[in-house]
What does this fold into?
Amino acid sequence: MKVLILGGFLGSGKTSLLMQLARYMTDSSDSDSAYKVVILENEVGKEGIDDKLLRGNGFNVENLFNGCACCTLSGELVAAAAGIAESCHPDWLVIETTGLAYPELIQDNLAGGIGMYSRICTVTDASRWSRLRIPMHALLEGQAERADIILINKTDLASEDALSQMEAELREMNQDAQIIRTSALDKIDSRIWQKVLGVEE
Amino acid sequence: MNDHIHTGHDHSGHAHTHEDGCACNECRHETENKNPSISSHLQDGACIVSAQYHTCMDAEALGIRLTELLEELASKINAHGGIIGHIKASLDIHRAEMYSVTEEKVTRKSSQVPDITLCLAAIVFMVPEEELLAHIKTMFQKLA
It folds into this structure.
């Protein structure tokens, strides 16, 4: 089972992108093969919202609510991932984190707990970056610094200057990640999903 | 009539006072049946509020009113210097259909108005917890 950790700040568009990504992964008409995918939704609150939307669109969703998977629910996260691997045998587990989570901590927990390797895709919000950059500095940097790939989302709501500035700031946070611009309003090119999954040809 | 022995039973009512967090059956029943039920906590500088609200009304009308009230809530938070992580709501809409047979023929009845559960999740920064809770409670009062 391969694991993708989909992180990024609140409201950055993780779920909107995940809907497209999951459709790409499970639909063989757009790729050479379809994957069996389980989505693990983490919410810090008691109520789940996004899981209902994902489930209503036909995806296989497990929940981890009432805490953060990178800290307060770290044990439960590892147990859930191991349980999903054993019971469902999916090709991919996609963990959509809460917007408060540090994806690298989840990656470390999975590796240390059950020797499970994972990729990190961090979604960032071009429309709010300049407003959040300073007050949410620690969290934004923590979410970007070990990402394998960073998506600058909502590019339709930002100017070219703002996008270039944002890209430069993200590059300072993470010198190795691929940084790709997206807008979840459009159909994302399958080559971007291949990069997200790390399965480019 | 039962002949069991009553000695040792307190039939005069509760023998304890109901303080905050009392978990006796009466208090638990009251909490579980509050509408809306709202809870909150703080994490990493964010105030996190979860709420659940039950109603029976036209779903479209509820959606329109909810949209207005969420925008009003967002506006209040922004005006007070808060940063909204996200405020999300979902509507679980249930319509009941009943099928019944007593002799030979099945009769079918449908509910006229759906039973709706509204779930709310709010994560907000830089707003005191009590203030955010007050705003959200006001929102539900306006929704009722």
